Structures are given as structure tokens and as C-alpha cells.
Amino acid sequence: MRIAITGSTGLIGKELVRSLRADGHDVVRLVRRAPAAADEVRWDPKAQRVDTAGLAGCEAVVHLAGAGVGDHRWTAAYKQEIRDSRVLGTRALASALASMDAPPRVLVSGSAIGYYGDTGDRRTDETSPAGSGFLPEVCVAWENAAKPAEEAGIRTVFARTGLVVARSGGAWGRLFPLFKLGLGGRLGDGSQYWSFISLHDHIRALRHLVDSAELTGPVNLTAPEPVTNREVTAVMGRVLHRPTLFTVPEPVLRVALGEFAGDVLGSQRVIPRRLLDSGFAYDHPRIAEAVRAA
What are the structural domains of the chain? Predict the structure, then answer.
């Protein structure tokens, strides 16, 4: 299969490219500069331009591009960058695909469980409404930007991603070095739920969304049973054989992270109902397995 991917240099994108190519698929990578390799195609999200000629023959597109939510302090300018990188990019890509004479049969477009906002200890699935606040508003606009593809009859799936357990990036990319040094501990009171998924299972789930012809709309990409930050802390200590004596109090997090601290301390108990109902089987359903795999 010929598959196009945006965000191919990110944590998930790099691993997805590797996985697909290992199985013999032809991968096209969309880049925001002049193409420097035969597998690259130019696009410019801000200018709303995509080289659709380079996407000819693609049966699927996986859209993963977007500025990192936790990469910088949330200034007004960076919040705008988070939003624009998702909304403008999705709109440009969806419109370009809709304009093609022979568009791909499926668009798997990135989204996030941030859509639901703080859900406390309530079990939340894809039938739940959007929450309130910056991240839910971004996710709603992000998903709405894919309407041109949906209206053109392209099967469109929104991969609402949870916290990806990986050694080399994301939240766990920052946690592992601290815990290995014996400096790890719970954040706040540790009662907030973290809806995690191993990087390995996330890649498998994305490929499942591409292949499962019946899936459309939002699909939560999280493990079956979310755990609290307190449980995460205990598992990290056991797996890495390190003490977990430290605690980062809420006021300190708010000083260090600013507005983003509210999302770090927020609780999301998100269940992957549609993924489970579609027959997807996890290799790392529990947090200890996901941490060991990373």
C-alpha cells in the first residue's frame, strides 16, 4: 500500500514510518521544505498548499503534524502556534485530498484526549462531549478542520491519543531520566488519572485504523484501564528499581509550567471503547507492561 504521512520526524511518525516500511509498504513523507529525497512531498500548511501530484496513488494518509503541547511554556504566541499548527495543517491537507481526482480511501487525522478536558474519575468514552478550556477548544477546531475530506467521501478517523509511553519523547521521555536518577515522584496529590498507551500499541492502533473499513469519526487511542499518577509513580519505581520519595507540589508545578500545569494536574479517565469494540487486542494493556516495553 502507498501511504502518506505528515509529522514523520516526530516520536510517533518516525516509528510509524519504520513499522510500515518493515512490512513492505510504500511511504511518502510530507515535508515543509524543498524535497531532498524521492519519498518526500512538499506541503505548506500556513500557505494552504499541498503538492497533490506527489500523493497520486496513495490509498491512505496519516496526519500527525502539530507543535508539541508540552514543548514550551504557554505564552499567548505559543498557544496560537499549537492551534494553528493543527487547524491550518488539517484544513490544508483535507482540502487538498478532497480536490484530487482519485483521493485516498482513508484519512487518519491526529487528535487528542484533551478533547474531553478534565474528566475527574468519570470513565469517559467517545460518546462524551467536549470539555471546556484551551485544549478542548483546540481539539474541536482541529477535528472540524477535516470536514472537506469527510464531505468528499473520504473515510476520516480521528485518533484521539492519550499519553504515549516511550523512552525517547513525550511525557515519559522526560520522566524516565528523573526516575533513573532516583528523583521521580508523584505530581500534586497523585490522584489524577493518566490515560496511557505504549508506543508499540499506538503504532499498531494507527495501522488498525487505516485497515478497519468500518471505523470513522473519533477513536480513543489509550490503554483499556487508565491509572492514577500515584500508580504510575509506584510502577516506575518498581520497574527501574529506584526510590520514589519526591513529590512535586501543585504550587511548584504552576510556577514552573504556568497554564499548562492545569492539564498536568488534570484527570482524564478515558476508555478506548470503539477500539476495543472493533477487535483491537493490546500487547501492553497494563502500565507495568508499557513501562517495561519502553
Answer: 2-164+197-222+269-282 (3.40.50.720)
